[in-house]
Design goal:
The protein is α/β, with parallel strands linked by helices. Helix content is about 20%, strand content about 25%.
Length: about 475
Amino acid sequence: MKKLRNFLLIFWIVSGMAIEVSAQKTIYVRPIETDDVLTNPGIGFMTFQRFNGDELNEGIGWTEGFPIEYQEFDGNLENKDHPMTSIAYFRVYWKFVEPEMDNYNWAMLDLALKTAHERQQTLLLRIAPYGTGPDRDVPAWYRAMVGERDEWLPEGREGWRVDAEDPKYAQYFGKFITALGQRYDGHPDLEAVDLSIIGFWGEGRGSAILTQKTREALVDAYTDNFKKTPLIMLLTDEKTNKYGLTQANVGWRVDCIGDLDFWAEEQDGWTHMYRYYPQGIINFGMKDAWKKAPVSLEICGTLKSWKEKQGYNANDVDYIIDETLKWHISSFNAKSSGVPEEWWPQINRWLKKMGYRFVLRSFAYPEFVAPNEKLAFKSWWENNGVAPCYKEFPLAIRLKNEKRTHILVTEADIRTWLPGDNLYDDAVFIPMDMPSGNYDLQIGIIDPVTAVPKIKLAIEGRDTEGWYTVGKLKIKKAEN
């Protein structure tokens, strides 16, 4: 109990039990909140074309679209000048995954998933149909099928290397996405998949002018085949985004967070942060999508280019951060570029709000309980982040002493714990053969397969196994 006093405020309230010979105490526990940056599943910064422990990009540039160049790993998961991450983002062009028609390079994706798992990450994936330039083209077999013309957007614009309205495009790219979903939907190491349909880098340029038939065929290839793994749509246009929402609980993403003035002079003051994102989120129907699926955002340029090329200061960074928090960001791709040293206070503030952040405010339970009876409890949680957790991790109670350890899984659905206060009251059965004695009563949000704690809480008291001790519970046989 002396140790518990270091991190818990415990209040004992005696309530009279008319049918009991002795009084039963209800123990009220108020854990102490911490201010640490927490690395948790599905939230925070991510690595890009890399994994935890890899060297970052040099300078202000980055790589994307090509197969990962695997670095020699020395066993150290830390990322120099970059936050620790739980997500590895892999963006690769279609040509590298289907180099020959119906011949899929699943080995490349399998290796990325395996490496992410080994580096304590899950994989966020985008298959972009093509990029800019001939080395970023559609697969050679598809190019041979449709001819050499490599720009199809009307009015002299650029962005479609092939004709999206050619029925063959939805047929063959859709067929590939179908195969992708059939193989990987629900994979435990697959965090989410970008719903990428057309345009350079799969960013959706020109989506608004698609015919509804083509739009639906391309979107359906994803929503019909990814029923378990979350899908994240590019914020493109009203018709495409609203249609996607009718087919699934899709999240959304954009790829140019931080554009305050990148091209403003040549575009009559137009910027993503002022004239596109705030309006598009509402007009395209995505304002409340965050309640059911993740918002994953990507930097415009890199943090280093914000400082060295754009000349941003700390106030600019704060403004950008606050906008993303308002939009309920869960994860952020900084393109594996380092954080300028003077901006770490801003980045850490961001990380403490991004996604979910669970604080156990109060936990109430009886002083003792008998085997084969229910342990009733009441709990008050606060989500101090800006989004829920989108994956099903069970809330569990563990009873532990020197003789016995037993995990009791509750029916809590933490996916419903939106920002703010959340109450969860329940009762779990104590096993019939549970030995009498004093037990540490611990809580954890666990992996549904391994029962190992998966989510760190913003409270004190975490032990070496990831469980949080909230008090003592006595197991004793019922008095006759």
